[in-house]
Structure formats: C-alpha cells, structure tokens
Amino acid sequence: METPKRITSQDVAKRAGVSRTTVSLVLNNKHQSSQISDKTVQKVLRSAHELGYVPNAAAQALVRKKSGVIGLILTRAHQQINSDLYLNQVVNGLLNVCHNNNFRVLLDVIEDDDEISTIQRIIQGRQVDGIIFFGPRTNDKTLSLLSKANFPTVLMGALPDSNFYSVDVDNLAAAQMATEHLIKLGHQRIGCITNATPSYTAAADRLQGYKLALSKHKLLADDRLVRFGDFDPQSGYRAMRGLLSVNPRPTGVFVASDVVAFGAISAITEAGLRIPEDIAVVGFDDVPLSAYITPHLTSVHLPIYDLAEEAGLMSIQLINGESPEKQNLRLNTYLVVRDSCGANRNN
User: Does domain 69-169+304-331 have CATH number 3.40.50.2300?
Assistant: First the structure.
C-alpha cells in the first residue's frame, strides 16, 4: 500500500498562490509586523485547512531553537514504574498543564550506570526545553550537571542547600503527624517502613518525622523497628515480615508510601494478624486505591496532581525566561482517617 504524500508548506504556498515565506509568517503568527494583507492571511489559512497541513514539529524546533517539550526524569529502576500509583497522578497533572500551554511531555527513566550520559544526550540533543526531576537524591550526579549547565530544572521534591526551583510538601511534618496519630490512639511500640532508601530526600525526611514524633512523646526509638522500602509492594511485604519477627512486635506501623503499605498489609494478613486489632497501619500519599482496599487505608493525603501542575507551570516560566514567584513552593497535606488505624472503631 502506497504511503500518502506528506503535505508541505510548499503545497500550501502553491495552492494559495504565495511564497513559502508568506506561508511561514502567517502560520507562525508573525505576519502582523509584515505587509501581508488580511485577504492573503485568510487565503493561506484556508489553503492549509483544505490540504490538512500539519507543521513539522522538528523543523519548527530548529527554527525556534526550542523543542516544545518538557522532560519528566525519574531516578529509579524500570521495574518499579509499573506499580507506582503515585506516578500516574503526576503524569496526568503534568500533561494537563503542558497541553494547555502547547508543550508536550517526554518521560525518561535513568539508572545509576548511565545517568550522566542520558542527561547529556537529552540536553545536547535539544530533546527538551526544561526538565522536571522527580524524586531527587542527595547523591544525584545529574543534578550537579544540570546546575552547571544552567538548564531550566524544577525538582519535584526538596534538595537541601541547592539553588534549584522545587515543588514539594513538608515531608517531615507530615510523617510526624501520621506517627502522632498512632501515638494518640495508644500505641507505644510503633514501626516504620520508609518509601525508599534514605538517599532520597523525601524518604529521609519522612523517617526523621517518625523519629521526632517518638522523641516528642518520650517513646523509645528501637532501630529494629525501622525497615526500608523500595517504592513497590514487594519491598513492603519483605519489610513487614522483618518487623513481625521482632519481639515484641509493633502494635502500629507507619508506612511512608501507600504502595509499599499494600505489601505490608499482605504480610500482616498472611501472618494471621488482624488490621487494626493486632497491628494498626497508617500510609502516606493517599493514592486513589487506598480508599478501596481492605481495610481502607488511613493515609497522609498529598496533593499529587496539584504538585505536578505547579511543577509544570514553574518549568514553563523558567523556559520562557521568567522567574517563578517562589523558589521553593510547599503545598499542604492532611491525614485521611479510614479503617486501618482503628480510630473509627474507637469512635
């Protein structure tokens, strides 16, 4: 089957009876400063519509020296992406704000063995105009490269002592709130499963918030009750099994990610224990599925969609040479109380 011929600006020019330069000026909305009549403008627009002409994005990018693309960069293993319910909302929020501002989104995952070469390829190849860096770590080499290149970069997450623009929540305060909720319910032996390793700044802050809550209420911090998740349910399952082997086991657990908490809940029920009667569970993120699992998961609500939209708007401002109003924007969190913590039963 013969491939249909691609309609070009030359075809539009021929149909309208004008030059390619005139077509370019009209379709790029730059004809106001030239002496092109309204009649000619309408003739070009009508011809383009009749022919079904679609401008070549790559060619336009070369002319404008911009790609019209914002890169969403993730630093984690590829296999963890499938179970990341948080990421779905990030992508939806970012797509919405980008499409409303005539940008597209490029999603890329970089791992430690090729992070520098991947970022260099993206920047030098002009594949994107700006980058949103999702989940920064204290040891990310790519961030140093982006900083030196003065490339428009926004962090979804915080990085202490950096000059990057960022959008985040107060992870430390939110984790402290979640842990104190368990304390107020009468729990004194409380475990913690992080969302990731502490090299991720969000994970470190949530762990610190858990410890601050224990210290504030003069509860003993037992290192055996801290386990590290890795973004997925499998890591939560393994971590919870480890906590269940500790004697005496915890009566409550703060899990710093709902997705990780799903695995922890599976391990608890598999062990023949009841939630919340034997072990209370509080999660973090409040992903949509948390309201539908059994038992319904109490969780810290993160405005995930809003965080992504704000990151997108901030990135667009930087690309356009503007300075966002705030360098480090922080959105609010709150606790959504459901069945898994036992508060509803107590009431």
Answer: yes
Q: What DSSP string runs through 171-240? A: HHHHHHHHHHHHHHTT--SEEEEESS-TTBHHHHHHHHHHHHHHHHTT----GGGEEE--SSHHHHHHHH
CATH of the domain spanning 171-301+334-346, picked from 3.40.50.300, 3.40.50.2300, 3.20.20.70, 3.90.180.10: 3.40.50.2300
10 Å CB burial of residue 37 (0-12, 13-18, 19+) is: exposed
pTM of the model: 0.80
Q: How far is Cα 338 from Cα 213, in angstroms, rounded to an integer?
A: 21
Identify which of 31, 5, 6 has the alpha carbon closest to the alpha carbon of residue 18. 31
Task: Please state, in angstroms and rounded to a whole number, the distance separating the CA atoms of residues 140 and 190.
Answer: 32
Asked if pLDDT for residue 120 goes beyond 50, the answer is: yes
How much is the pLDDT for 193? Answer: 98
Q: What is residue 1's predicted lDDT score, i.e. its pLDDT?
A: 45
3-class secondary structure, 43? helix
Q: How much is the pLDDT for 149?
A: 84
Bridge partners of 166?
Answer: 155, 328
The string of pLDDT tens digits covering residues 259-296 is 999 999 999 999 999 999 999 999 999 999 999 999 99
Q: Report d(CA 151, CA 213) in Å as an integer.
A: 39
In the sheet with 165-169, reading across from the earlier edge strand, the strands are: 104-109, 69-74, 130-134, 153-156, 165-169, 328-331
Tell me the residue type at 230. D
SS3 label, residue 246: coil
Provide the mean pLDDT of the chain. Answer: 89
Residue among 251, 189, 179, 197 at smallest CA distance from 222: 189
Question: What CATH homologous superfamily does 9-55 map to?
Answer: lambda repressor-like DNA-binding domains (1.10.260.40)
